[in-house]
Write the C-alpha cells for this entry.
Amino acid sequence: MPVADRPVMEEDEWPGYLDRIAKPRPDHLDYTVSLVEGVARNLDRIDELIASYAEGWTIDRMPVIDRNLARIAVYELLYVPEIDDPVAITEAVELAKQMSTDDSPRFLNGILGRIAEFASR
C-alpha cells in the first residue's frame, strides 16, 4: 500500500488515543478530530481533486506536509461551509511557511486557489 493511502491510525484506535490526551483538553480538539475524520471519510475525492489540479505532480511525489495540508484545506473548502475559502487557503499556506519547503506556500496557494474556484461542491 502506498504511503499516501496508508491510514495513520485505524478508526477503532481513535477512542483510546483521545482518552490519553491530558485534561483539560485543548479547545480545538473537537474540530481537529472532525478534520481528521472528514478527510479520511472523503479521501478518495480529495486526492482526486488534488491530483487533477496539481499540474505536474502526483500525490505520492508531493512532500508529506504539503500533501496533508492540501487534504485538510480541500476538505474545508468542500465540506465545511463555516470556513471561508480564503481562510482555509491562508491557513494551509501559513502552516506550509512554518513546516515545509520554500516552494510549498506558493504551490499550495496555487492548487488550493484553483480548487476553490473550479471544483464543484
